[in-house]
Amino acid sequence: MERYVAFLRAINVGGHTVKMDHLRGLFGEMGLSDVSTVIASGNVIFHTRRKSVQQLEEQIQRHLREALGYDVAAFVRSVPELAALARCEPFPRADLEAPGITLSVVFFHTPPSDDARRKLLSMRTPTDEFHVSEREAYWLCRTRMSDSMVFKKGLLDKVIGIPGTSRNMKTVRKIALLMEQAVGGRR
What we know:
Distance between the termini: 11 Å
Structural class: alpha+beta
Mean pLDDT: 91
Largest sheet: 4 strands, antiparallel
Shape: globular
Helix content: 40-55%
Number of helices: 8
CATH architecture of the largest domain: 2-Layer Sandwich
Low-confidence stretches: none
CATH topology of the largest domain: Alpha-Beta Plaits
Number of domains: 2
């Protein structure tokens, strides 16, 4: 059995509220086991024998659409993938330790195109800085996210041209640690 996390986008928006126990039940209906939610209902850890992340994402999205009546995007990562993301320091340590910064990871289904990467990196300002890896982008915000023009105008989706969802790096590291501990305890 492999352990994965699904980062969900738009699970509790637009007047919709999904309780975590209901969400865990929906994941169980798909044959996924040891389902738990972390911090908020948009982070779901589970076990499965399936190995294709793309097929898992499609299955989760389809099942949530059928069960909830609206679209919820799912971005699935394995234990090794999330561990690598949590260890990554894409910006100088001094920038990461500066007061008032927020470091986020933006998850995508597929790698952004070369053109999308160039556009994203061109959005660099004294407030916002970006680093693009495989199916993720790291976003260093030197102010509160709500004060960033990138955040206010929803520019990430517009510039990248593919759906994504973001999580604070502290959340990513917490989930990565929980996943690694769970895997270590099962050996």
